[in-house]
Amino acid sequence: MLLRQEPARRAFDKRAILRNHPLFVGLKPELLDALGSYVIRHTVKRGTAIFARGDPGTSLFAVCSGTVKISAASSSDRGAVFNLITAGAIFGEIALLDGLQRSADATAITDCELMMIERRDFGTLIQEQPEFAIKLIELLCGRLRHTSEQLEDIMFLDLPGRLAKTLLKLANESKHTSRGRRIALTQSHLSEIIGISRESTNKQLRLWQRQNLVLLERGGIVILAPGALAAIASTGERG
Q1: How far apart are the C-alpha atoms of 234 and 128, rounded to whole Å?
Q2: Rounded to 5°, angle at Cα 106 from 101 and 109
Q3: Are residues 20 and 73 in the same domain?
Q4: CATH code at position 51
Q5: Does the residue 239 lie in any domain?
């Protein structure tokens, strides 16, 4: 795992990050203080492998800024993206509960700032704060629902429907620009998310660009007509 720890001078904001994070909001101040003392802040450069499938699962991560890709590679070098973790979300939570090996790869697809807490430091928190354990269960249920929906889309939605639905979901998590929401994601990553070749994905995107539904930029896609994409997503052919 190639991470660089932040200098101690930046430690002052750890408690603020914890206090504002959905997973930790509502915890007693003394617990936040104790938890903050365990937090390690890291900066990660784009393309850095944070952990790999099979690595020991000893910590949980929260994204302070940037985007992390959770994925798996096959023997044919084709990859599948399970999730994109953006600012305010966490990953590595399965290892927090069972302490087993990592079940997927985590890679920074942009420059990232991460917050890491070791599994051993969560024991007291889970024992003393049952609501925290409930939040973890809710998080895992949400991830399971996402995976089930992703599998259903791959099985039943055609390419335009699958691509349109994915673009709209990513757009909801992206920033506004003067022309529309911009998704900072390469077409290669997008094709891995929907399980379609990059060539087919690019062909469909270029068709939509000619129809003024999207604008293709280097390293990103601007959504120009979300309503039209929503209609495509809702009428995607199903087997």
Answers
A1: 45
A2: 175
A3: yes
A4: 2.60.120.10
A5: no
Per the prediction, the chain carries an average pLDDT of 82
Contact call for residues 70 and 85 (beta carbons, < 8 A)? yes
**7: pLDDT strictly greater than 60:** no
Q: Domain limits at 144?
A: 4-151
Place of tokens 């953006």: 86
CATH, residue 213: 1.10.10.10
User: For 118, phi and psi rounded to 5 degrees?
Assistant: -70, 150
Residues in the chain, how many? 239
The values of phi and psi at residue 175, to 5°, are: -85, 150
Question: 109 and 24: one domain?
Answer: yes
How many Cβ atoms sit within 10 Å of the Cβ of residue 28? 10
Residue range 79-100, pLDDT digits in tens: 788 888 888 888 988 877 777 8
Q: Do the beta carbons of residue 157 and residue 165 sit within 8 Å?
A: yes
Sort 226 into a burial class: Cβ within 10 Å, 0-12 / 13-18 / 19+: middle
Same domain for 99 and 132, yes or no, is yes
Q: What is the pLDDT of residues 174-229, one digit of tens each?
A: 777 778 899 888 888 888 888 888 899 999 999 999 999 999 998 889 999 999 99
| Secondary structure class of 8 (helix, strand, coil) | helix
What's the whole-model pTM score? 0.72
Cα distance between residue 158 and residue 233, in whole Å: 9
Q: Which residue do the tokens 């929260």 mark?
A: 62
Structure tokens at 67: 């985007």
> Nearest-CA neighbor of 61 among 142, 111, 119?
119
Q: Which residues, listed in sequence order, are joined to residue 106 by a DSSP beta bridge?
A: 51, 70
Chain segment 34-56, per-residue pLDDT in tens: 777 888 888 999 999 999 999 98
